[in-house]
Amino acid sequence: MLFEQIATGGCRSYLIGCAETCAAAVIDPEASQLDRYLALAARDGLRIRYIIDTHTHADHFSGSKQLARKVNAPVVMHRETTAPMVDMRVDDGEMVIVGKLRLQVMHTPGHTRDSMCLQVEDRVFTGDTLLIGGTGRTDLPTGDSDALYDSLFNKLLRLDAATLVFPAHEYKGRDHSTIGDELASNPRLQAPGREAFVALMANLNLAMPTHITEALRTNLSGGKTVAQMLAEAAAAVPFMSMAQLRTRVEAKDPMLVVLDVREREAGMAGHIPGAKLLPRGQLELRVNEELPDPTRHIVACCEFGRISTLAAATLREMGFQRAVALDGGMKAWREAGFPLEGAEGR
């Protein structure tokens, strides 16, 4: 078996492949690592046949839908998931066949209702059901401490003690553990019985994940994250440096339009000389009035360079083929000491 563990902060995802058939699967892909999965598969001569999420993630953004689109492979999750972009729903005791590899599905609800583990050869991918020195939390949507107790003690922990454990999270840099090691030393598994375990889980007092609202929204719906929308916009537009824009502004380039897409109060407080103020929220409705010539060289700018990137991408979609975004934002422009008009102008 070909095997690669990919770390993204505290998140862990995995590429596993069959050396004989060159078929592969990616387990718990993270949205920022799509190019890495493709590069690793290409390096080993593998074709990704399945993208598998062990559960609905609440603390990071799944890359399953995007990766599936890139490699034309199905997204696999447990049948209890409500995510609409799933192509193959599996159940306890079933297998996902990847070349000569057999991934055995174990339904392990508790962290979430749709949690599952995958056993293949000498290892088990435990998602957030079992972590190294811990377990998945049960205070997020569809979490259930009673169910987690059953999943752990009546199913997962009954695997051979030598079985390697590869979780979806690890925050101390450890690669893996074993079932035996976790039984012996994992503090949450030392609770003397169900009631004690449930009480322990109820009193962890963990902070909520930073991006829980956006993560649940996108992972449950297949919608786009803000970062994904920004990345797609950035890939679709060119950029102009602040130095180049300053040169063109000072030369009074007749084809140049500097489009400040901040709210009007921010724009009036200080803007690039000659800039046209058109808030991003009004762009589509006022574009014909404010930008009648689609051949002009439009440079969109905002405070930090993100909203202007989205604006430039929108303008290009609308036919303004010379629309670009300023590389940087008004904050960087001010800090560079470049000229301003308005209340902050000099």
TrEMBL record:
The UniProt record lists the keyword Nucleotide-binding: no
GO molecular function: hydrolase activity; metal ion binding; sulfur dioxygenase activity
GO biological process terms held by the UniProt record: glutathione metabolic process; hydrogen sulfide metabolic process
UniProt xrefs under PROSITE patterns: RHODANESE_3
Keywords, sorted A to Z: Hydrolase, Metal-binding
Keyword Kinase: no
SUPFAM superfamilies documented for this protein: Metallo-hydrolase/oxidoreductase, Rhodanese/Cell cycle control phosphatase
Residue span, Rhodanese domain: 252-342
Official protein name in the record: MBL fold metallo-hydrolase
Organism lineage: Bacteria, Pseudomonadati, Pseudomonadota, Betaproteobacteria, Burkholderiales
